[in-house]
Specification:
single chain, alpha+beta, Ribosomal Protein S5, domain 2, Alpha-Beta Plaits, 4-stranded antiparallel β-sheet
């Protein structure tokens, strides 16, 4: 049996994000296209002989019991009644509160890895059904491919996206998702689109919008400043906020992305990233 596993937990961006309704339980109904990117956290999983879940390194300022990786491991233990334990180490690279899905991706990688480490043999769908209990984005990372998503984000259809390079800017602002979705000014009745509408669009970069963006830029001027700066530097581009967080991405040629990164105001953090077609741990037979 494997004694240790090392996995990459990639970030995602939302190519667009439409809020089309709200359920009676308060969850918002959305439509989006999730795009995997090559910015990632590193997850290390090791068997623990005491049957307990330990986290030796993880996200700063988050107690171990509140960390999604610990919650994921304990949920898997409870679901399968396994007596096995583990030690989890997370090396964070994906900024938190940035709309990049870092916590959800870490949780998905933990479920994926422990399913193998503990030899549980759960199917991908079983893991996805568990994952949604941890967060609406978790099933996508277990799905393992770029996807058109509906519902609360758990209804997924694989979508092929062109290879793209992105400049990703994080303005060092942490935005709690719950604050955005509770805002009374948030659009909640965006007309529904279809996956064909997106695929057949002549310009995917300009398709739709992010309905969270208008709410966020009213509250967080630094996000508005990033959007304005990119528009000034690359007037023909279409910068967009990702998810409900503070990061902004824009599709550019690699040389232009690197040039803008070199000019980035010092108070922000930037990355030049590429889109992925599949999760690094994707196994089509699982």
């Amino acid at each position: 049996m494997t004694k240790a596993l090392h996995l990459q937990a990639p970030a995602k961006i939302n190519r667009f994000l439409h809020i089309v309704g709200q359920r009676e339980d308060g969850y918002h109904l959305l439509q989006t296209v999730f795009q995997l990117i090559d910015l990632h956290d590193d997850i290390s999983l090791t068997l623990s002989p005491d049957g307990c879940v330990h986290r030796t390194a993880g996200a700063a300022n988050i107690p171990a019991d509140d960390d999604l990786v610990v919650r994921a491991a304990k949920l898997l233990q409870e679901h399968t009644q396994t007596k096995q334990g583990c030690t989890i180490q997370v090396e964070k690279r994906i900024p938190m509160g940035a709309g990049l899905g870092g916590g959800s991706s870490d949780a998905a990688a933990t479920l994926w890895g422990l399913n193998e480490l503990w030899n549980l043999q759960l199917s991908r769908q079983e893991l996805m059904d568990l994952g949604v209990k941890l967060g609406a984005d978790v099933p996508f990372f277990l799905f393992g491919q770029n996807a058109f998503a509906e519902g609360i984000g758990e209804l997924l259809q694989a979508v092929s996206l062109p290879e793209s390079c992105f400049l990703l800017v994080y303005p060092k602002v942490h935005i709690p998702t719950v604050d955005v979705f509770k805002d009374p000014n948030l659009t909640r009745n965006h007309p529904a689109v279809t996956i064909s509408d997106f695929i057949d669009s002549p310009n995917l970069e300009q398709f739709g919008k992010n309905d969270c963006e208008e709410v966020v830029i009213q509250k967080y001027q630094e996000v508005a400043a990033v959007l304005d700066w990119i528009r000034q530097q690359a007037p023909q581009s279409s910068p967009r906020m990702s998810g409900s967080g503070s990061s902004v991405f824009v599709a550019l040629e690699t040389d232009q992305a690197n040039h803008l990164l070199s000019q980035l105001p010092h108070q922000w953090i930037g990355f030049v990233v590429r889109g992925l077609s599949r999760h690094p741990s994707y196994n089509p037979s699982s």
